[in-house]
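User: Sequence recovery, please. Input:
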């Protein structure tokens, strides 16, 4: 079966062992399953988000903060049945939700695992934590399986999206996919503790030197969706050693840059959102992919 799950449309036969642009075949590989405390407050809460980090990625950004798993060099092969067990184990540990990180290339297997685990008693919301580089068709097939969409919205500029992710069509694809996510969720719902049960949170990771593109993204998101989505503006970009040769990316976002973007969002009228404070741009903020919980 020729794989067309993501906008790359690489059409390889992953079911028979061929490797897609994502770096993976059909076999599920995951690098960590644990309670994650550093997502947005309405996702992690006090008990954590039940996060499953999948190996491989359809976008492959040059600055990837999770590079060891994105390129498939870390991960353990598991069955659909084992994945369903992991979901149930995370719920038993007190997770507020099941948080699927870079799940696109395993969407079919994840749906089967969710069917198994829900039949066995899984009740917590499902979070689809994605780069945003999705097809509308793939998101449509998730309706009824996903409660919360947590997409990145990385670029508006074709030049930047091609330079850093070899995806000149990123904005076109991400904006269409986001519209479908919003249609499905029909507004945010929270429990009495402020934990999201349904909705869309859109993340934007600010990159050094890209203030104008970041402003364009925030403007697009707010003018298009107003308070129908939550906007999370992130300053945690960490220049890891492999970007040393890309001079403009080989530094952190400055406090001045980030303040300028946050002030711009406030001026626009953004109130339904999150910002980050303190020194989040450090390697210790990135999870250790040690196969915990797999």
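Assistant: Recovered sequence (294 residues):
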């Amino acid at each position: 079966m020729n794989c067309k799950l993501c906008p790359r449309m690489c059409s390889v036969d992953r079911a028979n062992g061929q490797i897609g642009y994502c770096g993976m075949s059909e076999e599920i590989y995951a690098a960590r399953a644990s309670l994650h405390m550093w997502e947005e407050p309405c996702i992690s809460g006090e008990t954590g988000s039940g996060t499953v980090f999948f190996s491989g990625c359809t976008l492959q950004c040059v600055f990837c903060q999770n590079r060891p798993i994105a390129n498939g060099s870390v991960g353990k092969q598991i069955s659909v049945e084992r994945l369903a067990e992991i979901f149930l184990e995370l719920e038993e540990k007190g997770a507020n939700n099941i948080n699927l990180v870079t799940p696109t290339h395993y969407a079919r297997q994840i749906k089967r695992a969710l069917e198994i685990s829900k039949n066995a008693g899984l009740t917590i919301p499902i979070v689809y934590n994605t780069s945003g580089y999705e097809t509308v068709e793939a998101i449509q097939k998730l309706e009824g399986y996903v409660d919360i969409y947590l997409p990145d919205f990385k670029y508006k500029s074709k030049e930047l999206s091609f330079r850093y992710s070899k995806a000149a069509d990123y904005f076109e694809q991400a904006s269409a996919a986001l519209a479908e996510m919003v249609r499905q969720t029909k507004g945010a719902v929270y429990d009495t503790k402020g934990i999201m049960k349904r909705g869309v949170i859109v993340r934007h990771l600010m990159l050094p030197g890209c203030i104008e593109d970041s402003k364009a993204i925030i403007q697009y998101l707010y003018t298009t969706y107003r308070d129908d989505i939550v906007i999370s503006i992130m300053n945690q970009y960490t220049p890891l050693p492999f970007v040393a040769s890309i001079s403009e990316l080989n530094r952190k976002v400055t406090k001045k840059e980030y303040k300028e973007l946050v002030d711009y969002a406030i001026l626009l009228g953004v109130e339904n959102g999150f910002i980050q404070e303190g020194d989040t741009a450090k390697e210790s903020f990135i999870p250790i992919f040690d196969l915990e919980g797999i």
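Strands lie at 28-36, 49-54, 76-78, 98-101, 126-130, 148-151, 189-190, 196-205, 230-234, 273-275.
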